[in-house]
Amino acid sequence: MDPREVETEANSDQNQSSNVYHLALDIGGSLVKLVYFTKDDDHIVDGEEGISREKTSVKSKGSRDYPVLNGKLNFKKFETSKINDCLQFIKTMNLHLGGNQQQENTGSQTTAIKATGGGSYKYADLFKERLGISLDKEDEMDCLVAGANFLLEVVHQEAFTYMGDQKQFVKIDQNDLYPYLLVNIGSGVGMIKVEGDGKFERVSGTSIGGGSFWGLGKLLTKCKSFDELLDLSYRGNNRAVDMLVGDIYGGMDYSKIGLSSTAIASSFGRAISENKELKDYNPEDIARSLLRLISNNIGQISYLNALRFGLKRIFFGGFFIRRHPFTMDTLSVAVNFWSKGEAKAMFLRHEGFLGAVGAFMSSDKHGLKELLGNEVVQQTPNKLSFAVDKIQVPIDVELNGDESIECSVYAA
């Protein structure tokens, strides 16, 4: 299937909203993530158009064929502090009205949307009041793992490594994917040992994550948003704030234990010996030092947990990363350094949407994997099931969190 151009902005035209078929949410402490499917006009196929017959045929016990919908899987995010903007977007696009399950409630029918994350509890009443919908809550860890497994198994060139400004896509062998360590960096950090579909264990975590970077950065630099803080770090020099090994050893390496003179001995440690106030430091340098502090810490803790269980592959997800080169490079260097090159840090192109994708998939827990294997399904699929072996995403497009990818789904 040939990929179409990735969309970078959602179309707010009401005419398009009639093609919305499904919606799922992941409402976190910092961000609300949306995943929804929109079908293309005049692109319902029965096996002769678009993709081959063997990939469109799905049968229930009655040997009935189900049609395939060609369209796009869309991804969009909002700051949780601006949840009213998210609600307005859903309402304008009529995302909550298309192709969702119905729940009977005291004689009336209420549209139920799959949702995960703490906000699915915190904002449940708000969604019901503003949009008249019920949030059908799914477990957060279940969704994270299901979303990661799905993306790694189905989306072509989903995973990649990044170190020294070199990006390299990783070919995933579905028969050799497990086990791996999933490190989800959101407001905090969760570390999950994944052994298969539905087989996982949360083995560690840390409260020093994306929320720490954003919160401390806001206090120290006056930045108004996470992305503004990241942009600021691009222009910074952490050496103006951090104490380096060379500062302690008179500009020399500590070669006996493998530390170069430019290695950080103490994050923000230079401030100890300098008679300066906060206003005397460049905000860019503070942002750079803060980003490196948190990324290094997460990278080291991740490797130590991988070491506990003999895991060689570590996948990093969550919107803290933002495909930011310096963040990815710092995480990779930390994993490479502490593992002496034996473990790899790998990143996901749809890093921030793992939970939302898992929630989206939860509407079809029983049929998805069988469909991907082109096997006969012994029950009617629930709403949507993906009908391709690999979803193609243009490799020369840098995804920024609001995009869409072409795919096809089975419709019940």
From TrEMBL:
GO molecular function annotation: ATP binding; pantothenate kinase activity
Annotated EC: 2.7.1.33
GO cellular component labels: cytosol; nucleus
Associated pathway: Cofactor biosynthesis; coenzyme A biosynthesis; CoA from (R)-pantothenate: step 1/5
Pfam family name, one: Fumble
Top-level taxon of origin: Eukaryota
Main subcellular location: cytoplasm
Top class in the EC scheme: transferase
Species per Swiss-Prot/TrEMBL record: Lupinus albus (White lupine)
Subcellular location: Cytoplasm
Keywords: ATP-binding, Coenzyme A biosynthesis, Cytoplasm, Kinase, Nucleotide-binding, Transferase
Protein name as annotated: pantothenate kinase
Coiled coil (UniProt feature): none
Organismal lineage: Eukaryota, Viridiplantae, Streptophyta, Embryophyta, Tracheophyta
